[in-house]
Amino acid sequence: MKVHLKQIPSQGLHLSGEDDCPIEEFASEDIQCAGPLRYDIDVGVADGGLWANGSLSQPVKLRCVSCLEKFVHEIRLPALAVHTELNGPETVDLTPFVREDLLLNLPAHPHCDKDGDLVCNARQLTMEAQAATRKPDWSALDKLKLES
Q1: Are 82 and 52 in contact (CB under 8 A)?
Q2: What is the dihedral sign for C-alpha 4, 10, 15, 21?
Q3: Are 5 and 86 in contact (CB under 8 A)?
Q4: Backbone angles phi, psi at 90, to 5 degrees
Q5: Are 37 and 19 in contact (CB under 8 A)?
Q6: What confidence tens digit (pLDDT) does each residue in 105-129 have?
Q7: Is-contact 111 65, C-beta < 8 A?
Q8: What count of other Cβ atoms lies within 10 Å of the Cβ of residue 110?
Q9: Phi/psi at 5 (nearest 5 deg)?
Q10: How far apart are CA 59 and CA 108, in angstroms?
Q11: Strand stretches in the chain, DSSP E
Q12: Residue 14, beta-bridge partner list
């Protein structure tokens, strides 16, 4: 996501649309892009620096840590805020800032049923197994003789 400085008026510029997935190079078996990056940001130049704020949305395909099935999760950044100094080039690439914020907002332990749209098979089996278990056996603790 590159911004050409000469195209930014003094009151700022509003940009919205779609761009290529900025985390494609980090794609692995467990994390893959599932669509384009959607952005809605305002950019401007002030005091020798470029500022940008707005919102981002990036769908990614993740692997559930419980059932190991893949599912689509949307990383939403409602409050992107960037400020960087201008070092002379006519264009500024916001991609590294966007990539960093997206990676920081990836779930550490993704679960397919987090949003309530899907039912995780592993969790459902675990709940059924817990319901069918026998009563706890405290007899071993009852035999324990403690000295006072």
Answers
A1: yes
A2: positive
A3: yes
A4: -80, -20
A5: yes
A6: 988 888 887 766 667 776 655 555 5
A7: yes
A8: 18
A9: -65, -30
A10: 16
A11: 2-4, 13-19, 31-33, 37-46, 49-63, 70-85, 91-93
A12: 42
Q: How far is CA 106 from the centre of its chain?
A: 3
Q: Are 35 and 23 in contact (CB under 8 A)?
A: no
Q: Which tokens hold the place of 135?
A: 């009563």
User: Both tokens of residue 130?
Assistant: 């817990």
Rounded CA-CA distance 132/78 in Å is 44
> Strand 91-93 relative to strand 70-85: parallel, antiparallel, unpaired?
unpaired
Instruction: State how far the Cα of 15 lies from the Cα of 9, in Å rounded to an integer.
Output: 13
Other residues' Cβ atoms within 10 Å of the Cβ of residue 33: 18
Q: Which tokens sit at 16?
A: 């919205």
What is the value of pTM for the model shown? 0.70
Sign of the CA dihedral with 78 first, then 16, 112, and 29 last: negative
Average the pLDDT over 50-70 and give the result: 89
Q: What is the mean pLDDT of the chain?
A: 83
Strand (E) or helix (H) holding 138:
none
Q: Which residue has the tokens 């709940």?
A: 127
Residue found by looking up tokens 């675990």 in the block? 126
